[in-house]
Structures are given as C-alpha cells and as structure tokens.
C-alpha cells in the first residue's frame, strides 16, 4: 500500500507565507542507472535568473550508484531552470549535470558531450520533438486499473480512448500537462496509448540541447505528480509481455534545410546516413545499450525489428517513418521510431546529429 498522507493537513503549512527573497531550489539530476531522477532542495537567498546564478552543489554518489563510498562526493552543475509547479511562487527546479571528484563528467552524464555536439551543429538549427510513452502502475507494480489476477480485453479500444472502461489515470495526465506548462516545459500534446494504462506526451519542437533538458524535467514532473496520486510511473519499454504494446520515445527531427522547400531530399540523405549506423544508434537508444529495447523492437506491435534498418512513408513498422504530410509537402521532418521509452534524450539527439550532420 502506498502511504497517503492527509493533504488537508499539509495545506495548513503550505499556506504559511514564504519570506520574500527566499527561494526553495530543487536540484535535479540523473542517477547511476541512467534512467532514474534524484532531487534535493536548498534555500537560495535570491531569485536565480540563469543557471549560472545558482551555486554548484554536491551529493553522495555512493547512494546513487555513481561513486565508490571512499570517494563519494559528486558535483551538481546547474544547467537549466524551470518554475516549480509543486511549490509555486518564486521557487525553482534546477536541472543539473553531474561531475566526479576529479571534475570529469560522470558516466551517466550524457549532457556534457551532447551540448558540445549541439554547439558544433547550431547553424543547422536542429529541432527535435520526442513522444514520451509511459505506463502507470498500481503500488503492486501491476498496470493501473487492470483487473487484479487477470487481464483487460484485447487492445483496440484504448488508444485515444474515452470512458472509465477504456482509460485509467487521466487525472495524472491532466495534472502533468498543466504542471509542465506552468514550469515552462515545451509540452505540445498528449494521448492515451494502445495498452490500457499506457499514455504519451510530446515535447517539442525544441532546439538543440534544450530537447534533453525539457524532456528530463517533464519526466521528473510526471513522477512527482503520480507520487501525489499514489501511482507509479514506469518507463520500461515492455512492461507487460504478450500481446501488449511496448513503450517508446519516437524522436522527430529536422534541420533548417529539411524544413525548407526541397527539404525532402535532405531528409532522404539523412536517412541514407542513418541506415549505415543502425547498430550504433540502437546502442544509444536505451540506457543498457540495446538490451532494454530488445524486448520491445520485435517487429510486432507497430515496431521494427531491432536487427534491421528500414524506412518508409507513413510506415509505423519501420525504423524511420516519413510522415505522410511531409512526403506530400516535400519538406518537414523525419521520425526515428527506435528510441526506447527509457532512453536518455541527450544520447539520442547527440547520435542523430553526429550521424546526419557532423560526419
Ligand atoms: P505521431 O503521429 O507519430 O504520433 P505526435 O503528434 O505524437 O506524432 O508527435 C509529433 C512530434 O513531432 C511532436 O513532438 C512535435 O513537436 C514534433 N515535430 C513537429 N514538427 C517537427 C519538426 N519540424 N522538427 C522536429 N520535430 C517536429
Ligand atoms: Mn505520438
Ligand atoms: Mn505513441
Ligand atoms: Mn510517433
């Protein structure tokens, strides 16, 4: 059972006025799993305007699978600021990347090299849009709303569904969307997914390094909102085996040239380059170098096989899909359908830029 405290009692304290100039700053970072998010809070005596205003901080890396106990101090370098939708007011969420005792980026710090690559490619104005699929679980790790000791009816009525027998957990989806807008995350849509209790939200189009920043903060907000409702979020790419869809993080991508007249030819060139680096991309598309995605990319349930590269217009069984509208307009973007729901968006966007622009 999830421990549920009384929110009415909590509100008594939250109504206390917060002194002017005192900001609660929640520092966020990615832990040693490459998938989990941790956070801790401190007071700032000023309102930070940019990440550079925020002090570098530290944490115990031996408790997050990021360091040995004997040399456990790790550094948090603030890199993006959002409004805090949980505390409101002048309080802030401070996204950080992690450095070791010797000031080298931690193994799970994928932002460091991604930022480098985005800087080199900036004149191409790369835009990304990620479709984050996820599943809601009850406290017993079984999908939310599924009959205990059984299964719901087969997939079909649930995608974009309406009604208490079709969707589970919409309160969380609604609360998350509003909280993201408040925070300043570029959320652009959401929908119920094919498997009951599975949902998706989209972030984008977002340029360069900001894609990863916004998606990580959107994920943090999702975990926190679900926590308030006593529900668990999983980004596992295949939470239920059998005839149930998995969860991905389709990554939509364009450069300035792709978005202009004649852009389809540029999109096709990029696909040609992507076709030569399938294995490298699969390795970058989940935190376990393809092991997680192996369960999802079977060639069934609207996925391509993990072993083959394919591309096609409007083809949801391909690695890369060119949306029908893009083929008709002759410009736009491509969709890489391979990234796993638990991917690190910094690693995904970095390898896409390396393959299609820098090499
Ligand atoms: P799907 O039809 O695959 O379900 P969605 O509507 O869920 O597509 O998501 C589309 C995504 O594509 C959004 O994240 C959006 O921001 C992104 N997108 C739209 N235009 C562009 C573009 N020109 N470049 C990159 N991403 C884009
Ligand atoms: Mn979608
Ligand atoms: Mn989807
Ligand atoms: Mn998609």
UniProtKB/TrEMBL annotation:
Residues 110-359 form the GS catalytic domain. Transmembrane segments: none annotated. The keyword Phosphoprotein does not apply. It catalyses: L-glutamate + NH4(+) + ATP = L-glutamine + ADP + phosphate + H(+). Its EC number is 6.3.1.2. Coiled coil: none annotated. Residues 23-103 form the GS beta-grasp domain. Belongs to the glutamine synthetase family. This is Glutamine synthetase. It comes from Lottia gigantea.
């Amino acid at each position: 059972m999830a421990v549920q405290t009384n929110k009415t009692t909590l509100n008594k304290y939250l109504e206390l006025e917060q002194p002017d100039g005192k900001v609660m700053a929640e520092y966020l970072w990615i832990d040693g799993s490459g998938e989990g998010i941790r956070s801790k809070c401190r007071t700032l005596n000023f309102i930070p305007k940019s990440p550079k205003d925020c002090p570098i901080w530290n944490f115990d890396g031996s408790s997050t699978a990021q360091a040995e106990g004997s040399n456990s101090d790790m550094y948090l370098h603030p890199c993006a600021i959002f409004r805090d939708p949980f505390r409101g007011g002048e309080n802030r969420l401070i996204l950080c990347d992690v450095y070791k005792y010797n000031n080298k980026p931690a193994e799970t710090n994928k932002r460091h090299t991604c930022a480098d690559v985005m800087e080199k490619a900036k004149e191409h104005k790369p835009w990304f849009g990620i479709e984050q699929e996820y599943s809601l679980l009850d406290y017993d790790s079984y999908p939310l709303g599924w009959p205990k000791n059984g299964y719901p009816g087969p997939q079909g009525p649930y995608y974009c569904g309406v009604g208490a027998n079709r969707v589970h957990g919409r309160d969380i989806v609604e609360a998350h969307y509003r909280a993201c807008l408040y925070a300043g995350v570029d959320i652009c849509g959401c929908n119920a997914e094919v498997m009951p209790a599975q949902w998706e939200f989209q972030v984008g189009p977002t340029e360069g390094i900001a894609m990863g920043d916004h998606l990580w903060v959107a994920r943090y907000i999702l975990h926190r909102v679900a926590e308030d409702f006593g529900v668990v979020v999983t980004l596992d790419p295949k939470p239920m085996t059998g005839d149930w869809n998995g969860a991905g993080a389709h990554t939509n991508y364009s450069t300035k040239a792709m978005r202009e007249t004649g852009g389809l030819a540029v999109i096709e060139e990029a696909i040609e380059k992507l076709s030569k680096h399938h294995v490298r991309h699969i390795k970058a598309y989940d935190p376990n170098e393809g092991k997680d995605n192996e369960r999802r990319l079977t060639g069934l349930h609207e996925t391509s096989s993990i072993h083959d590269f394919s591309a096609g217009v409007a083809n949801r069984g391909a690695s890369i899909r060119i949306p029908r509208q893009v083929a008709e307009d002759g410009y736009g973007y491509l969709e890489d359908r391979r990234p796993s729901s638990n991917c690190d968006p910094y690693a995904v966007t970095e390898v896409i830029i390396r393959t299609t622009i820098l090499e």
